[in-house]
Every structure is written in structure tokens, then in C-alpha cells.
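Write out this protein's structure.
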Amino acid sequence: MQYASNIVSVTPGAPPSVVLTAVAGNNRVDLSWNNLPGNTQTIVKRSTDGFTFEVIATLGAEVYGYQDFGSLSAPPTNGTTYFYIITVTAN
């Protein structure tokens, strides 16, 4: 004897998107992003070529912005293009 289940369909919702904005300043870059529910950690990465990224900050819960002043020995340089990626961990 064979039994068949009923047919169900479901369309999962996409996870919320992170919307990142950047504003250039004098030897600095101000980053901000949208509030994501349950945000527990944000990792900020920077690149000068768009391919090789390095972690420049690990931020705690419910943080929605970062000012990239670099370090005293290597601040963001005026006239240089920078690429940023943020990774948000949420519950």
C-alpha cells in the first residue's frame, strides 16, 4: 500500500538587506547602515582594490555607523578610492 502526502507550497522571505552608505571627509570616511532587528555584531572591512578586504573594525550590538579614521600611521588618504563591506550578525 502506498500513501501520498498533500502538496504544499511556500515562498521563503529573503533576509533583510543591509543598506550601506559612505560619506568622504578629510582623511576619513563616515559609514552608516540601516537598523537590522537582532543585530549582535557588525564587522567592517576595507579594500583599495575591491577584491582584497581586511577587517578594520568589529563592532558590538545595535551599532549602525563607523568613522574610518584609519590608524595614526595610515589614515584614509584624500583622493584614494576605498571599498567597504559590512557583515551583520543577527539573532
